[in-house]
Amino acid sequence: MGLVVLKFGGTSVGDVERIKNTANRILEEKKKGHKVVVVVSAMGKTTDQLVALSKELSSYPSKREMDMLLSTGEQVTIALLSMALAEKGHSAISFTGWQAGILTENIHSNARIIDIDPNKIKKYLAEEQIVIVAGFQGATENGEITTLGRGGSDTTAVALAAALAADKCIIYTDVTGVFTSDPRYIPGARKLEAISYDEMLELANLGAGVLHARAVEFAKNHQIPLEVCSSLVKESGTVIEEEIAVEKSLIVRGVAFEGAITRITVFGLKNGYNNLSSIFNKLARRNINVDIIIQNLTVGEDTYLSFSIKNDDLRETIDILEQYQEALGFDHFEYESDLAKVSIIGSGMISNPGVAAKMFDILAKNNIQIKMVSTSEIKVSTVIEENHMIEASRILHTAFELDSVGQKIK
Ligand code: ADP
Ligand code: ASP
Ligand code: MG
């Protein structure tokens, strides 16, 4: 007997039949004698539809109102799932994020959870109720509704698992586990039986949407074993934990990709050091996430700087650069949109030199131009043109022997 947190994503609760199926999966866990907390996402593509609706009315809607709007999606699911469980004879109670005690920082559209008061949930668990919590949302100290960023229901689940000291956290989704790359686009992708927190964190941060990166961060920090599996197909999923046995031959364990990236280049930035920090401070204050940064070359006192952002942040970045051009003292800036980041990830890279060189070589041989590069101990990322993103990912997946037939990936 223990406490489990189960999370079901949008596809798993996409229609009435899927909600009934989810209710059955929950009852299977409950019958094992566990106390069960369930986190759910909005039904199917509801969040996308709500975003589209807002765009019909406003080109740049306020982030506060977007949170108000998008948080409704999850609220629909929690109530319906609670009804479905009641219909099957088990009492359940649903809570929105703020009702469940989820406190976030005061940032709209991408807030971090700063605290969870688990007492209310514990009270209902003690009464043997199934507690259902709306994913992806919380509230600030002032009672403002916030959301946690797209895909954030995973983070709600893991954060609740930490706050409740749960024995395990299972993420049910529409694939059977974490694969070597997105199986929707990379036909040779294979399911991994296990992956380390660090590798998963890189995969998630670099575009593998199967898990929200902050969920993995939470799981690592609180040492919560995570399992990703299918809500529809009954087979074992992928376990994410601290240490896993890595096959020696597998230096690269995954390929991740992400589109809609823009490269900004600032020319003739004077007096490098101070102005460099000034630019990035100004962007950070407006919550613009800068990813890869390259200080190209320094001629005399002028610095030439490139950095990448998401396409969605372009307009605000241009505003900031135009506003502070004089104060920062640069000559001009240019940007190139419709770029993509393709990355290879694997802890085996630490002890195997030459992986980055091999990646660049493969891309060059396939006439794919690399525009930016960034590396860490366990990943190499390249920025390329977006129209080559899937092709490059497939080529790299094959070249690093991730899709060789019959290969068993531990
Ligand atoms: P949910 O609604 O259940 O949270 P998501 O759409 O957020 O589901 O995440 C599941 C999707 O993640 C899969 O359908 C798959 O296309 C995508 N995905 C991307 N990278 C990977 C990967 N490495 N392994 C498995 N799935 C991946
Ligand atoms: N419904 C939200 C989204 O689509 C949160 C989630 O599904 O995790 O991004
Ligand atoms: Mg998701």
Enter the CATH topology name of the domain at 3-174.
Carbamate kinase
Helix count from the secondary structure assignment: 11
Tell me about the biggest sheet? 8 strands, mixed
Q: How widely separated are the two ends?
A: 29 Å
Spatial sequence of strands, sheet with the most strands:
3-6-2-1-9-11-12-10
Quickly give the CATH architecture of the domain at 3-174.
Answer: 3-Layer(aba) Sandwich
> Structural class from helices and strands?
alpha/beta
- Strand percentage lies at 25-35%
Helix content: 25-40%
CATH superfamily of the domain at 3-174: Acetylglutamate kinase-like
Low-confidence segments: 405-410
> What letter string, H or E per element, gives the SSE order?
EHEHHEEEHEEEHEEHHEEEHEEHEHEEH
Q: For the record, what CATH class of the domain at 3-174 applies? A: Alpha Beta
Report the count of strand segments: 18
Please tell me what the overall shape is. Answer: globular
- Spell out which ligands are present: adenosine-5'-diphosphate, aspartic acid, magnesium ion
What radius of gyration results from the CA coordinates? 23 Å
